[in-house]
């Protein structure tokens, strides 16, 4: 089922957490920021929205390095209910798509809950002070693989953040599959 996150809560501070990554290391999210900011994106392996845009996510993460913006992806889906999102399958996904950023596993879903993640993909763009400046879409694509020349909303917003410390006032929300939360105990 498609989900749409709320718009940007400008100034909300990024929350530190350490999570295991597909490369065998453990990373502190905030340590992955660049000198001008950080993008934290919640993705998963099975979501058709993510599958349709993963190559553009990779492209934009590489391009944002030149603007001093770090990048990290987090999977918080319930892997018991959705085995395709297991940690082992995350490793395969990271390798298959040559992810140039750490892909972290939020097994207990605490980070996703703290960030208020709603869907995959769900992008959070922070400035150098780790204040939220962007909570929007990658581009206008949905579940289909759209032309590569779509307006690059995330890239343009984060390039602006790298220059000014502020994100655009007008932001289009991301859309994707809802986070697959674990059943309450």
From TrEMBL:
InterPro entries: AhpC/TSA (IPR000866), PRX-like1 (IPR047262), Thioredoxin-like_sf (IPR036249), Thioredoxin_domain (IPR013766). The keyword NADP does not apply. The keyword Ion transport does not apply. GO terms for molecular function: antioxidant activity; oxidoreductase activity. It comes from the Bacteria. Keywords: Plasmid. SUPFAM superfamilies: Thioredoxin-like (SSF52833). CDD domains: PRX_like1. Residues 8-159 form the Thioredoxin domain. Pfam families: AhpC-TSA (PF00578). This is Redoxin domain-containing protein.
